[in-house]
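Quick one, tokens below:
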């Protein structure tokens, strides 16, 4: 991911996702902060491709890094999990997918 820098002369705005005050960065988005922008991108990946990207752990590591950065800036975990609920529950989704694969898609399969 390329490093982002605040744009010279850009004003401060409140992120519409997490509520923290920030400035426009080189991503040219003026309504959400860089971390929420990246979390939204991970949600799009989950929506478009399913949980496969997250099974390797790469997506989960990226999500956790972004959430830690938001928390460092004073955003509560509750707000983050409300805004990005599908990412907050991705571990459950992965377990369900893996269980489904093991049981051939049968819910409540007996061993």
């Amino acid at each position: 991911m390329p490093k982002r820098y605040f744009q010279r002369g850009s004003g401060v705005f409140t992120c519409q996702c997490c509520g923290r005050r920030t400035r426009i960065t080189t991503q040219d988005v003026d309504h959400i902060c860089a971390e929420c922008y990246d979390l939204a991108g991970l949600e799009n990946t989950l929506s478009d491709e399913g949980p496969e990207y997250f099974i390797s752990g790469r997506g989960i590591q990226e999500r956790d890094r972004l959430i830690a950065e938001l928390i460092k800036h004073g955003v509560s975990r509750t707000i983050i999990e409300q805004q990005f609920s599908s990412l907050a529950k991705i571990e459950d989704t992965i377990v369900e997918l893996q269980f489904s694969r093991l049981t051939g898609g049968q819910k409540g399969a007996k061993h």
